[in-house]
Amino acid sequence: MGAGRAVGLLLGLAADAAIGDPRRGHPVAAFGRVAGAAERLLHQDRKAAGIVYTGLLVGGTAGLGVLAHRVSRRSPVLEAVLTGVATWAVLGGASLADEGTAMARVLDAGEIDAARRRLGNLCGRESANLDGQGLARATVESVAENTSDAVVAPLVWGAIAGVPGLIGYRAANTLDAMVGHRSPRHANFGWASARLDDALNLLPSRLAAVLTSACAPVVGGSATGAWRTWRRDASAHPSPNAGQIEAAFAGALQIRLGGRTVYGHVVEQRPVLGEGRTADAGDVTRSVELSRVIGVVSGVLAAGSALVFGLRRDRRR
């Protein structure tokens, strides 16, 4: 069991790097359409309605994963194939690197209007009034957060729970992006999705911060700076998870992140993370390189963990 899962995680990571996300027919996009239809049907301005919505969609998705696990548990080859497909479907490392690289390119060329338009592919913050440094900062923060959410976390849950963990986590994370924010429509309805996503990312986000420190020297960053800034500044961030890796990235790249941030015309004055200089296009490039290294190391660790978990289960039988 462990060998099939381990091989599948590595195959999925390789597939994400090689082919990325298809422009049409992506499974996560299909789930998003189902989730949107379910929201229109079930939406009420109550937390209870959101709990039902989240439970049905995440539980139903994880249930499909359990079915796949039962079908493949006696065949390591089939388990590797199904785990590989699921891993490829839920990982976002390649698309994240592509968008980050594109942002670095237009920022380096001084194409501020183009960079403002592209920022929406990475995050939902207002970009109309951001200058080059503000756009670079927003991009590094988004690359950092998505390295944890879309790369490290799926691999962690894949190592722990296989296909059910992979697709169940991705379902929860997608719902958080869709309804887990404090807009008037979703403040109550999206509460359950937001809290579930927070819970599922508690462990991966902290592991991602540790990996940031370990991997920083590979891209010319500071391991001690990443560790020190993470331990000192992460808890000041309003998110229990995003601040972990954002602080670590700030220290690794020796830049400042945080500060004034605008989402949906609402201004947030976030704590400053790090004590270095302001971010620029070169830091965006380095953040993408760091994200890639973290992804590879996460994949190797996840595969190794899956193999160990499988061997332990086999010995108990």
Automatic annotation (TrEMBL):
Protein known as: Cobalamin biosynthesis protein CobD
GO cellular component: plasma membrane
This protein's encoding gene: cobD
Pathway terms, separated by semicolons: Cofactor biosynthesis; adenosylcobalamin biosynthesis
Membrane topology: Multi-pass membrane protein
Membrane keyword on record: yes
The protein's role, per its UniProt record: Converts cobyric acid to cobinamide by the addition of aminopropanol on the F carboxylic group.
TM region(s), chain numbering: 293-311
The species this protein was found in: Saccharopolyspora erythraea (strain ATCC 11635 / DSM 40517 / JCM 4748 / NBRC 13426 / NCIMB 8594 / NRRL 2338)
Keyword tRNA-binding belongs to the record: no
Localisation: Cell membrane
